[in-house]
Amino acid sequence: MKTEYDVVVIGGGPAGMGSACGVKEKDSTLSVLILERDSTLGGILNQCIHNGFGLHYFGEELTGPEYAERFINRVKENAIDVLTNTMVLDIDLENKIITVINKKNGLVRIKSKAIILSMGCRERSRGAINIPGDRPSGVFTAGTAQRYINMEGFMVGKEVVILGSGDIGLIMARRLTLSGAKVLACVEICPYSNGLNRNIVQCLNDFDIPLYLSHTVTKIIGKERVEAVEISEVDKTNKVIEGTQQILKCDTVLLSVGLIPENELSRNAGLKIDPHTNGAYVYENMETLSSGVFACGNALHVHDLVDYVTAESIRAGHSAAEYAIKKGNNTDDSNNSLDYKGTVVSLKATDGVRYTVPQFIRIDNIGALNDKVDVFFRVGQPHKMCEIQVKTKNSVITSFKRLQTVPGEMEKISLSKKLLLDSETDEILIGIKDLD
What we know:
Elements: E1 4-10, H1 14-26, E2 32-35, E3 51-53, E4 62-63, H2 64-77, E5 81-83, E6 87-92, E7 97-102, E8 106-117, E9 121-123, H3 126-129, E10 139-141, H4 142-152, E11 159-163, H5 167-178, E12 182-188, H6 197-204, E13 211-213, E14 215-222, E15 226-233, E16 246-249, E17 252-255, E18 259-261, H7 264-269, E19 273-274, E20 279-280, E21 293-295, H8 306-328, E22 344-349, E23 353-357, E24 360-362, E25 372-379, E26 383-391, E27 396-405, E28 411-416, H9 417-423, E29 427-434
Parallel strand pairs: 1-2, 1-8, 2-5, 8-21, 10-17, 11-12, 11-17, 12-13, 22-29
Antiparallel strand pairs: 3-4, 6-7, 7-8, 9-18, 14-15, 15-16, 19-20, 22-24, 23-25, 25-28, 26-27, 26-29
Helix pairs in contact: 1-2, 1-8, 4-5, 5-6
């Protein structure tokens, strides 16, 4: 087993495979290793048997396994090394040493010139949101139920209530209905859905599944198995409105209440984490604040489309390759992380914008004057007929009109190098303004 590589990628989902292929795309001579704790590559895509993937990147509609297969084939074609069933225990950011363990090789330390973090995300559980009531069986996260049905062949229940209207919950409402279950309701605490509009239409409206907005589950009832749930209306502060309780008899509850970037490794290694994204702070090339360590995909911030994950991860792969080449040639790495001496612009979310990725832009690293940096963000609530404003402390330097923005869909704008230079500031604010 090799223990030294130019680039090591942690995570073998769409972000990990995309970034590994991005490294090889930049320089095919670089050695690349993907570390994956599951038995196969593909990550969450393997259990997403519905279509709708690949419209942006491949220009055609694919299922999750089909999308994954295309990148698995690219990994093989590029002769990228892969270690599956392998758990990463520790990352030494300064020396680029990754400690891993598996049944075949035992405990191994792997040395790398650059590291890419692409561990994906996990679901928020019942314990994280403190739903009162009994503790019977029949309570699942939506992703766990999806895996049981699509990969393991087990049906999770017959009469189902779904809490949360995230995309996984909406898709599981349709999947359960097609499998013969009765989905009684999808219950959402916000006054709007947190899923993509197309999923609301295709997964709820097309199957006459009711969506209760400004409602939440206030009690789970049952002994051995879930017998019913109590749902209640909430006010603008998410406080339960007394007298609005109603009982829905069911045998299963699915939780689709948010995703959290998987960054325990990053935190334990001492990497600086943005509290708004729960992912690492990054520069324009996806490099974190630790030189030579890059992040992408859902480990960086939760995406709505895998196509965006792919584009972002390939960019991270290109950047990691450039870093590894410089390290291999023993050239100056002053354009990386905290050693950078040029102008750094900080991006700040304001006025209805929850966060931005990247959080920092090193202007000298952008390239030619007409080159641009893509900035991704999410809004905190729905807006119609609005504009995204890019501002300094004193003025709006550019804006982008939108017919609507919703929290469930990630927004993207592009900022040119010329715009950043002309602004003559080290801090740019990105907010949203409703138009009359």
